[in-house]
Amino acid sequence: MQPFNKYYPPDWTPEKGSINKFYGKHALGDRARKLDEGILIVRFELPFNIWCSGCENHIGKGVRYNAQKKQIGKYYSTPILQFRMKCHLCDNWIEIHTDPKNHEYVVVSGARKKVEEWNPEDTEVMQLQDKEEKEKLEADPMYRLEHDIKDKNKIEESKPRITQIQNLNDAQWADPYTRSQQLRKQFREEKKREKRKAEETEKIRDKHSLKIELLPEHISDVIEARSVDYRRQSDSTSNSDPLDTKRLDVAVAPLFSNRKSDSSSASSNSLDKIVKIHTRLKTDPFYNPKPFSNKLHKEADTSKAHSNSDVAVVKKKPTMLPKNKNIRKEDAITTLIAAYDSSESESD
Question: Can you tell me the distance from the alpha carbon of 264 to that of 245, in angstroms, rounded to the nearest whole number?
């Protein structure tokens, strides 16, 4: 507890003045030891970051020193003060003056100021309103309303992210029953959608007897399937071996159908037939489209190797047609077919 009473020695009388005068001391104590030179020892705090010129060390803002305070001049009626202190890391003296004109401190010697420039908006420091803006806010109600909205938005943006998430959660779950009902409805629809896709996938697997897992359909698969051109592939199919083409026709033809010889050549190049052929080739993994052509090529190679083997030549008898000029076209065709069958039986 600070004492309020002072000790007065027995030999002191009021005519001798104050106790400090009686003892020959100043009221400020040791801080006024250089008061005769106009110097007062004060506790000085650095107003900004500096670099010491003696030891090249960084001294942060707010570091306190016992500085020698002295008045060196005046700016109008405002005194210009000098603060001189010793670096705590070395024996270098640092001198700082006040600048009443620019409202700042100036490093004169012993150190250099660390230059730090920034925008007050970036540091989130409260900015004071200008006089013109203040008058405009008082005079214009619409401008004041817009300014209030901007201030509210700034306050919301300045809140921590966790606080914003918490406020959003509270707003969304203000009515838990309605929110839960919406979520359950969304889950049911999603479950039905997945079940429908699974059923369609199982139908495709059962149809083609597949034991592998099918991936979900992608848009790239649809584009690639639509870009297939069957007309270009029909050109390569038309140039294949006749036996292979005949075997493909038989493979894709229905079991019970009426054969039409007149329309066989026209239907062989139809798009429907080409699609059936390629579908069979793609879906049947055990289907070999060219067994006959490979067999013929092998037989041709063996016949070339055995060139000394016997070759039997069978001559067919010429077919004689009746010399009746009034014969019909259908009767002539029937006669040619009968003659061809008889010649085949004789050759056998």
Answer: 12
Residue 58 and residue 26 in contact, taking contact as beta carbons nearer than 8 Å: no
CA distance 68 to 66: 7
Backbone angles phi, psi at 78, to 5 degrees: -90, 125
Report, in angstroms and rounded to the nearest whole number, the Rg of the chain calculated over CA atoms: 55
DSSP string, 126-162: PPPPPHHHHHHHHH-HHHHHHHHHHHHHHHHHHS-HH
Unique residue bearing structure tokens 């970036």: 122
Q: Which of 317, 325, 324, 321 is nearest to 341 (CA)?
A: 317
Distance from chain centroid for Cα 2:
68
Torsion sign (Cα): 129, 131, 137, 140? negative
DSSP state letter for 282? H
Picking from 248, 249, 252, the residue whose alpha carbon sits closest to that of residue 261 is 249
What helix, strand, coil percent values describe the chain, rounded to 5? 50, 15, 40
Our CA dihedral for 274, 275, 276, 280, rounded to 10 degrees, sits at 100
Full-model pTM: 0.35
Strand partners, 85: 94
268-293: average pLDDT? 64
Which uninterrupted H or E stretch holds 337?
Answer: helix 329-347
Mean pLDDT of all residues in 58-78: 93
Mean pLDDT computed over 57-77: 93
